[in-house]
Design goal:
There is one protein chain. The protein is α/β, with parallel strands linked by helices and 317 residues long. It is 42% helix and 9% strand. The protein is built from 12 helices and 5 strands. The chain has a 5-stranded mixed β-sheet with strand order 3-2-1-4-5, with helices on both faces.
Length: 317
């Protein structure tokens, strides 16, 4: 408590405090002790303010504390001229090289730190802005066998891909299921974003892969989990419970935890949606079916340049 009181004692007084303390003192009704006690100021401060006080607040405002004359040990005008001439002719010169030229050619006898402090005050050699540390992902144990964990997510189909004959307010969605070990994917498109679509998609994914996983990992979207506190069981969880599959939810608003399927969606934008034009839901599904075959046969650096289908065959043998 004493430390706080001591620190407050040395804080600068506000302009309002200075003005009213001087104003009351000039009325000659109150003693110096009363004024200093009331405004919690020292007698020396009050007397110093009174020398400047002319009845206005402006007279009590802080003025510059810059000295009127140079310090005896400051750089001389001749030395400053030498430094400026070298910097003008060599704008990219380093401080050490500049110090060497001054010492050898001009007889500069000051310490290098003195030159550095002077240049810093002139705006040279400013410290770079501290960089924010990049995010370092924690080690992730990717399954070594297929069927351990699938990642599932939903992507909005860009409206630019729709034909002009389709309704503007009609939206389409790509459901994606990815096996973490092999990176093999299954995609299917719907015209609604709902728990019904999620349940149907899981059944189609199991039929496509011809096996079911131990765990399916999703985000916290309403198509996979209830967003409000309720005792009802989500249809997606009912299906997974019946199949004996664990449903794992990632941390809210942390899509990097589902990073493999999120990364695949970025590839879809570059390889598929930038060149897509569809005229109906069935047309979209047909084009996506051909694209799925292509994407599962593209080598991946993360798989040591094997394709997802080749990795699946390798892991299963």
């Amino acid at each position: 408590m004493s430390i706080i009181t001591q620190s407050k004692r040395f804080l600068p007084h506000e302009l309002q405090t200075r003005f009213y303390a001087c104003k009351i003192y000039t009325q000659n009704k109150y003693s110096v002790a009363f004024v200093t006690r009331r405004y919690k100021i020292s007698k020396a401060s009050l007397m110093r303010w009174m020398k400047c006080f002319d009845g206005t607040k402006q007279s009590l405002m802080d003025k510059s504390h810059r000295p009127h004359s140079k310090h005896p040990n400051a750089h001389t005008d001749q030395e400053i001229e030498w430094i400026n001439n070298y910097l003008r002719r060599n704008p990219t010169i380093s401080m050490i090289e500049l110090y060497g030229k001054l010492r050898i050619n001009r007889g500069y006898s000051r310490h290098p730190s003195s030159l550095f402090r002077f240049l810093r005050k002139q705006g040279y050699y400013k410290l770079p802005k501290p960089k924010t540390k990049p995010y370092k992902p924690k080690p992730y144990n990717t399954p070594k066998l297929t069927g351990i964990k699938w990642q599932c997510d939903v992507k909005h189909v860009p409206k630019e891909c729709k034909s002009s004959s389709l309704l503007n307010d009609q939206k389409y969605y790509q459901y994606t299921m990815l096996d973490e070990a092999s990176r093999e994917r299954f995609i299917y498109h719907y015209d609604e974003h709902s728990s019904y679509s999620s349940v149907d998609f899981v059944k189609r994914a199991i039929a496509y892969f011809n096996y079911q996983p131990l765990t399916i990992q999703t985000d916290n979207g309403f198509e996979f989990a209830h967003t409000t506190n309720t005792e009802k069981i989500h249809p997606f969880n009912i299906l997974l419970d019946d199949l004996g599959i664990e449903h794992k939810l990632i941390r809210p608003r942390t899509p990097r935890h589902n990073g493999k399927v999120e990364r695949s969606h970025r590839n879809d934008n570059n390889r598929f949606y930038q060149h897509l034009k569809f005229y109906s839901l069935n047309d979209l599904r047909e084009q996506a079916k051909r694209y799925l075959y292509r994407s599962n046969n593209i080598p991946m650096a993360s798989l040591n340049y094997l394709t997802p289908l080749e990795m699946r065959e390798k892991l299963n043998n």
